[in-house]
Write a structure and sequence with these properties.
Elements lengths: L1 H31 L6 H23 L4 H26 L2 H4 L2 H36 L3 H4 L29
Helix pairs in contact: 1-2, 1-5, 2-3
Length: 171
């Protein structure tokens, strides 16, 4: 039951990250007309998004895999960096700040970041509950017999302190 809970919690992260990854191409398309001189920045955002999405797809197959969760963390780090560069580029275009589409997309990204954060927390709580149960007496004797030989992995990021805040996309 606890394994199912943490797998479901991971599915919620997957939903929110997919939402974010779907919004990013829209943001890039909306800014392309203004940022013709920043082609590399836009390409970096899309590339980082694709890398993060690939990590998510791999982790979706096995949310208990520490290496798959590490790939999500790595992809998310690249994406955060690329979005930061996009933010800096957009600051140079005042007419872009006033665009309603950009404003709407920015609000959606902010909302999505909050949802991702909540989903990560729920996943890690479910993993902790599974691990505590698996490690508790007498379950620790029976768990390996029923295929639960190791603890589930938490979804942790290398820049944990920095990602506690949603990325600032300011126009």
């Amino acid at each position: 039951a606890y394994k199912n809970q943490y797998e479901n919690a991971f599915s919620q992260i997957e939903v929110q990250l997919k939402r974010r990854y779907d919004l990013i191409p829209n943001l890039v398309e909306a800014t392309k007309a203004y940022l013709t001189h920043e082609k590399e920045t836009l390409e970096a955002v899309i590339s980082a998004r694709n890398t993060a999405l690939a990590g998510l797809k791999e982790a979706s197959k096995n949310p208990a895999s520490a290496s798959a969760l590490g790939k999500i963390a790595s992809g998310e780090g690249m994406l955060k960096s690329a979005l930061g560069a996009l933010n800096v580029a957009v600051e140079a275009y005042p007419e872009l700040k006033a665009n309603q589409n950009i404003s709407d997309l920015t609000e959606e990204l902010t909302s999505t970041e909050n949802r991702v954060s909540y989903s990560r927390q729920a996943f890690n709580d479910a993993v902790m509950q599974f691990n505590v149960y698996r490690q508790s007496f007498p379950n620790n004797f029976f768990a390996p017999t029923f295929g639960f030989r190791s603890d589930a992995s938490l979804l942790e990021f290398e820049d944990s302190a920095q990602i506690q805040q949603a990325p600032k996309v300011s126009f």
